[in-house]
Amino acid sequence: MSFVADLTKVHPYHLGMALLGGVIFNLANLLLVAAIDVAGLAVAFPIGIGLALVIGAISNYFINPAGNPLLLFGGIALVVAAIVMDALAYRLRERERRNAGSKGILLSLLSGVLMGSFYPFVSKAMFTSGASGPYAVAFLFVIGVALCAIPANYLLMRKPIDGQTPVDFSGYVAAPKRWHLWGAIGGMVWCTGAVFNFVAARTHFVGPAVSYSIGQGATMVSAGWGVFVWREFAGTTSRIKLLLTFMFIFFLLGLCAIAAAPLFAGH
C-alpha cells in the first residue's frame, strides 16, 4: 500500500498508538537533554539509553517474539553490566570534584524508563490487526512529537529541572541561527534513522525487539563523543578509566549478541 493510501485508511487505534509513542519519546528526549546538561554525554547516554534498551527490548519481545531469546536477553544482561559500570564511573568522578550528587543519574534513569516505553506503542501501531505501514506510522509518530514538544518544552523552560535560570520564549527566538540550524539537522538525522528502524522492525526476520535494540548502538557513538571529543572524564583516576573501558567492552559485546539474535532464531 502506498504511503498516502496507508494514511487515509489508518485505524483510530493505530493512530492513537503512533501519536502516543511520539509524545512519550519527546518527554524522554527532553529529560535526556537535561541529563546531558547535568552529567554529560558519556554518562547520560549509557545510563538513559541503556536502561531504555532493557525495557524496550523485553516489552517488544513479548509483543512480537523474534530472534534467539538466549542471545537477545544475554546481550541485554551485558548492557545492564555496562550501565552499572558507567554509573560507578560517574559517581567516582563527582566525588573527586567535591560535587557529589545524584541528579544526573536520576534524570538519566527517568529518561531511560520513558525512552524504553515509547517503542511498544509504535509496535502496536505496526503489528496489530489492520496495522499501518512503517512510513505512515513514522509520519504520525513525528506529529505526536510535535504536539508534545511545544507545551512540554515551554514548561521546562519556565521550570528548569537542571538547575538553570528560567527563560521565556524570547530566549529561543534570540538564540543564534546556527543553534537552530544544528537542531534542525539533528532532527533530520534522527528521523531518517527512525524511519529505517521502523521499516526493519516490520520485517519478520528482524522484529521490533531486535530492531529497537540495535538502534540503541547510538549510545556508543554518543558515549565516545563524551569521552574522546568533549573529554568529560579528562584528568580522572585510572580506576575510573578502567570502568569506562569495561563499559565500552560490555556494551559492544551486548549489542553484538543482540544483533546476532535474528541469525540464530531457530537454535
Question: Which structural traits does this protein have?
Answer:
single chain, Glucose uptake protein
Quick take:
This is Glucose uptake protein. By secondary structure, this protein is an all-alpha fold.
Characterise the protein shown here.
There is one protein chain. With 267 residues, the chain is mainly alpha-helical. The chain has one domain (3-260). Helices cover 79% and strands 0% of the residues. It is built from 11 helices and no strands. Helix 3 (41-63) runs parallel beside helix 5, helix 8 packs antiparallel against helix 9 and helix 9 packs antiparallel against helix 11. The longest helix has 28 residues, at 12-39.
Biggest pleated sheet = none
C-alpha termini separation: 34 Å
Mean pLDDT: 87
Order of helices and strands: HHHHHHHHHHH
Strand residue content:
under 5%
Q: Low-confidence runs (pLDDT<50, min 5 residues)?
A: none
Secondary structure: number of strands: 0
Number of helices: 11
The whole-angstrom Rg is: 19 Å
| Helix fraction by DSSP (H/I, runs of at least 4) | over 70%
Q: What structural class should be given to the helix and strand makeup? A: mainly alpha
Gross geometry:
globular
Count of all domains = 1
Protein name: Glucose uptake protein
